[in-house]
Amino acid sequence: MNPEPTERASFPHKLLRLFIARWRSHLRNIDRDATREQVFEDGGISYSYVFLVFASSAIATLGLLLNSVAVIIGAMLIAPLMGPIVLLGLAIAETDVLQAIRSGKAIAAGLLGALITSVVIVKLSPYISPTPEILARTNPNLFDLLVAVCSGLVAGYAVVRRQIGAVAGVAIATALMPPLATAGYGLAIADLQVFQGSFFLFLTNMLAIAFSVTGMVVWYGFGNLRTSRELLWKTLAGGIVLALLSIPLANTLNESVFKSLALKRATDVLREDMGARGMRLDRLQVNNADNGDILVNAVVLVPEYDKGATARMQTALRLALEKPVHLQLDQIVVGSAVQPVQKPSVIANPVIPLPAQSPPLTESQLLAQYLRQVFPLPVSLSEIDPVRKSATLQLANSYAGNLQALYGAERTLQSKFPEWQVRLVPPLRDLPVVKFDSGGAVLDPSGLNALRIAQWALERWGLKQVGVAGYASLGEKGRASASLAAERAEVVAAWLVEAGFEVDKTRAYPAPGQEKEEHERGQASFRRAQLVPHFPADR
């Protein structure tokens, strides 16, 4: 007989026996008691744990507000929540209810402490709109879950094998604290969408790490597995939780993929339409509306304004994307690359890019380029007249700043281009409050500056009529408090009248609900005069 078939048949068995022998030798080097002791010690509430939670949350929040990746990574490396989460995974593996409760208390305390820290910091800081680092943590997808699962496996391996260096990589990969800090930001600014997205990312990471750690420690023989049935229900429980988490994450990923495909198709359609007409695509955004329609925002550079472009391009987009499309098309009239436009140009954003090997820019092109690079303001309408050397920019309602910032921006532009008349027209905003010292009705430098900004805004809006209401805190000047409020209105009104405005003045003392407001905001909030613009329809 030929023994070769027998030898071939036994080769897989030999390989399997070799693997099992090596694995058992590998397991003999595991000090399970020391590992459990370390996990139990790191997984509970302690003074150091509380301190690290507050510190890492503060660092993460500041990094998000500063949009600083380096600062955020610093918060990731602290990673105080990893200890309780690893303990939860081990407790699940060993069916240790007491340790699971202990880890749950630590996680809850850390979560609450991180949220409170983040909310307090955001509340005490000046308002900062969501930065790219914040927005990046509000829309988790299936890839985030996969990262958390892989990181949990590494975390379990690092704990079992006592390889502390690997934990730092896990902390950065899963980033538990930045999503919590983002959730605190969402709470502080009352943005439910930011809070929900970031908190769901934290919850996904936490559960995925915990169940992955469970699987890893079971593999290394830590589990309290008396029967194969116990292993089965633990595996099924972890799989069901991860599957439930994956459903919304998969939907988000699908939306992201669809958005990317829609963006590519929209870009191809618009460029095909514009190519024969001397137009050029400058900016493009594609978003999904709540009703399933597609919202497309495009900015194009054109030699002259094309009235039919919006309808024509919207039809082409609807056919290409096979869905209802709403197109917001902003045309930037730039004329020839050499000859400037000799009449006011209606544009949506003062953008004139430099063509390759272009001749020296004209003054109007320099102004437009400076506006784009240095003052990237959301502009809804603009007129740049190179003949009269005038530039008027109408700010869009999406502008999130205040009147004072725009007033300073216009002065800076005017000094940068002294030969030009530059005008920034602000969107409708509350006029600045004119504040007074306690018991006084004298305009100080701060009050005069507020009035100058108010005068500038009213002139830019083309208004000549304004109302002035004088206030005083309760009992600020005893029985003369009402007279003090009237005097403040009179002082402000006199200044505005001298500046050429028609003024209606009134005394607002006591104001409705003033006692409650003073209790919440302080007495100083009523030592003021309030300006209200009067539009023609108001008269």
Tally of helical segments? 18
Classify the helix fraction into a percent range.
55-70%
Find the CATH topology of the largest domain. Answer: Glycerol uptake facilitator protein
State the domain count: 3
What's the count of strands? 11
Q: Give start-end ranges of low-pLDDT stretches.
A: 335-358
The N- and C-terminal alpha carbons lie at a distance of 114 Å
Can you tell me about this structure?
There is one protein chain. By secondary structure, the chain is an alpha/beta fold. It has helices spanning 4-28, 32-42, 47-66, 69-78, 82-94, 97-124, 132-135, 142-161, 165-174, 177-188, 192-219, 228-275, 309-321, 363-374, 403-416, 445-461, 481-498, 514-521, and strands at 280-288, 294-302, 325-333, 345-347, 379-385, 390-395, 421-425, 434-435, 465-470, 502-507, 528-533. A hairpin with a 5-residue loop joins strand 1 (280-288) and strand 2 (294-302). Helix 3 crosses helix 10 (177-188), helix 8 runs antiparallel to helix 9 (165-174) and helix 10 (177-188) runs antiparallel to helix 11 (192-219). The longest helix is centred in the middle third of the chain and has 48 residues, at 228-275. It is flat and about 100 Å long.
Q: Could you provide a short overview of the structure?
A:
The chain folds into three domains: 23-224, Glycerol uptake facilitator protein (Up-down Bundle); 336-349 and 359-428, GMP Synthetase, Chain A, domain 3, CATH 3.30.300; 434-538, 60s Ribosomal Protein L30, Chain: A (2-Layer Sandwich). 58% of the residues lie in helices and 13% in strands.
